[in-house]
Amino acid sequence: MSEEQPALPNRQSPFSEAFKEFICTDWAPYSDVLPEQLPASVAAVARREALSALFPGDRLVVPAGGLKVRSNDTDYRYRPHSAFAHLTGLGTDREPDAVLVLEPVDTVDGPSSGHSATLYFKPRAPRTDPEFYSNARYGEMWVGQRESLEEMAALTGLDCAPIDQLSDDLAKDADSTRIRVVRDTDTALTVELDQQRDQAGQTEVEAADTELTVALSELRLTKDDFEVEQMRLACDRTAEGFAAVVADLPEAVRRGRGERWVEGIFGLYARHAGNAVGYDTIAASGDHANTLHWIRNDGDLHDGDLLLIDAGVELDTLYTADITRTLPVSGRFSPTQRKVYEAVLEAQEAAMAVCRPGVKFAQVHEAAITVIAQRLHEWGILPVPPEVSLDKETGGHHRRWMVHGTSHHLGIDVHDCAQARQEHYRQGELKEGMIITVEPGIYFKGTDLLVPEEFRGIGVRIEDDILITADGHENLSSMLPRTADDVEAWMAPLLEQGR
Ligand code: GLY
Ligand code: MN
Ligand code: MN
């Protein structure tokens, strides 16, 4: 259920009886043309089947989650839970308070491993219902015309039922059916199901729920063809946003608070070409690049500094890119900036080179940090030999200058599959269809006394989105330049546009 908004008498005025009658009249009928099925929902069928096979005989409950209050009677823009989006194909702002239920089906031979899927949601009320004009969260006058049961069924290819029916349906056979729910996405529903399972004598329900959550995360470790296409598109759109940012860098320098200008230009592209940004854009100039999650973005841009931009367009299907480029604001790297940049690039090349099926996820990171430790040592910065620093038990000195990992899974969530078990993620192997980032960096904070002065205040990260293929990998973000020379050559005509 959506988070409750506080009662705000100051914001409400009663409707007269005359208004209530008048408002319900003279509206054109609803169209009887049903919407086309969402392509994402076609791909979701096989995902539901894969989930079904993991939990034979269990009732599986996957809520979309409700609206969250930002302040008073204003909500955050809605985004469904990623597992719900993955299993239904619904994206953008669909569908607050909806719940997908996979119900085990019996066959003539006894219990089967199959499930039937039903999407419970709040269908639109007719225009004769006060919801039409008085419900700011669901009413047509406030949020637009929402789907009927038939329209939602056409969009998703799912059987649909009104949300009011959910509690009764969940109570059926509650004594004999094991129920698993994605906990806390819909708090009220979690509480209701905990009580129901308690009464039915089901034990260890939290552990059973965790198994579902883990399975949903692991289902997304390898992407299907539809998902790969979406990720390609997300990278294309992100690259267009990066080019627009570069074309407007001269304006960002002129205006002051240029980091915000950069964030805004990218945000415009993300909102226009997709659903939104996939995470808050990091627009970090100069020493700000050394704050890993710099999203305040209130700094100026100066010719002579680097700008680290880490940003991704999230499509309407919610698949997001996650790309970083570190760009010279003037269009040309200084010799010291180039030295750091090329070390990071070398680390990234080494990490990408190992990306193929069968290689351990951790080896990608090891390849990157081996290069970084070597370069730091050559520059006289690493206080121990690289092999000592690279020893996991006793070393780790290089981490002072790259404290984050090199890779994470990417998909509907920017940090996708985060609930997957260690043996399938950090300690797992790469498989065909996985998409991971490769994003080494070197960060020399302005206050780092161990670093020669010429390096201080330089932070560089290069991040690309890598699809693991049958015999290697494909860089989905390769349309953006990576070598220092290519970056300069790409920027020159774009900067010229903006001058
Ligand atoms: N943008 C967040 C990350 O790179 O992981
Ligand atoms: Mn990343
Ligand atoms: Mn990133």
TrEMBL record:
Its EC number is 3.4.11.9. GO terms for cellular component: cytosol. Keywords: Aminopeptidase, Hydrolase, Manganese, Metal-binding, Protease. Gene3D superfamilies: Creatinase/methionine aminopeptidase superfamily, Creatinase/prolidase N-terminal domain. Residues 38-190 form the Aminopeptidase P N-terminal domain. One of its GO terms (molecular function) is manganese ion binding. The keyword Manganese applies. It is an enzyme of class 3 (hydrolase). InterPro entries: Aminopep_P_N, Creatin/AminoP/Spt16_N, Creatinase/aminopeptidase-like, Pept_M24, Peptidase_M24B_aminopep-P_CS, X-Pro_dipept-like. The keyword Protease applies. GO terms for biological process: proteolysis. Its cofactor is Mn(2+). It comes from the Bacteria. Belongs to the peptidase M24B family. This is Xaa-Pro aminopeptidase. It comes from Candidatus Avipropionibacterium avicola.
